[in-house]
Amino acid sequence: MTQCSNIASNNNNNDNNNNNIQASLDGLNCYVSYLFSIGFNQSEAANLCQQNNGYLPSIHSYDQSNSLISIISSGQYAWIGLGYWNSNQIQNHNLTWMDGSNIDFTNFQNSQGPNEDPYPCYSVYAGSSSWTSFICSDPLTTVVCQYPLNQGFVYY
After folding, report:
1. Where are the chain's structural domains?
2. For 30-79, how does the pLDDT look when each residue is reduced to its tens digit (9 = 90+)?
3. Residue 95's pLDDT is what?
4. Contact, 31 vs 56, CB < 8 A?
5. Can you name the residues that pair with 96 across neighbouring β-strands?
6. What is the model's pLDDT at position 14?
7. Proportion of the chain in helix, strand, coil states, percent, rounded to 5
8. How far apart are CA 156 and CA 148, in angstroms?
9. Which carries the bigger pLDDT value, residue 97 or residue 88?
10. CA-CA distance, 140 to 33, in Å (whole number)?
11. CA separation (Å) from 145 to 30, 93, 100, 107?
12. Which one-letter DSSP state was computed for residue 2?
């Protein structure tokens, strides 16, 4: 957990009115949750993570989902890196993770899949851990960044 805490403290960005930072480690990744007083759309949230050498989370297991949810304040939504990134993907219902990894685990709200979801971007809800489709330009005040420990994001 020390590795994750150090990542969180090294990436504290006070320029965006960041009020609360929490970190979690699942063995492969460090997740850092930032609670802001202002909202970020999905693109802005992704850019914030990339500025700190991370990305919006891709979720591949129940345990990984629990690590992520454990650092999101109750009642909050946070962007995940799942969505449709061009009109062809929307038309073909071809969801992808921003990091290019395979979709091998899902937790859509009410067991609905992407064919029933009306919006192209996804968030995770701390209250249920389910994935909810959102309009990509909606502002969310919680940003969670994923830092893979096997890619040199280990800080001591």
Report:
1. 2-150
2. 899 998 989 999 999 999 999 888 999 999 998 888 888 889 988 899 99
3. 83
4. no
5. 83
6. 45
7. 25, 30, 40
8. 15
9. 97
10. 12
11. 8, 25, 16, 19
12. H
How far does Cα 81 stand from its chain's mean position? 6
What pLDDT is stored for residue 91 in this prediction? 67
124 forms bridges with which residues in the sheet? 78, 131
> With a threshold of 0.85, does the pTM exceed it?
no
153, amino acid identity: F
* Token pair listed for 102: 């395979």
Which of 28, 21, 32, 24 has the alpha carbon at shortest distance from 1?
24
Q: pLDDT at position 78, please?
A: 95
Residues 141 and 83: their CA atoms lie apart, in Å, by: 19
How far, in Å, CA of 122 to CA of 58, rounded? 11
Nearest to 79 by CA among 104, 54, 101, 102: 54
Taken in order 58, 71, 39, 77, the sign of the CA dihedral is positive
Dist CA 74 CA 125 (whole Å): 8
Contact yes or no for 47/26 (Cβ under 8 A): no
- What topology is assigned to 2-150 in CATH? Mannose-Binding Protein A; Chain A (3.10.100)
Q: Which two tokens stand for residue 20?
A: 């609360």
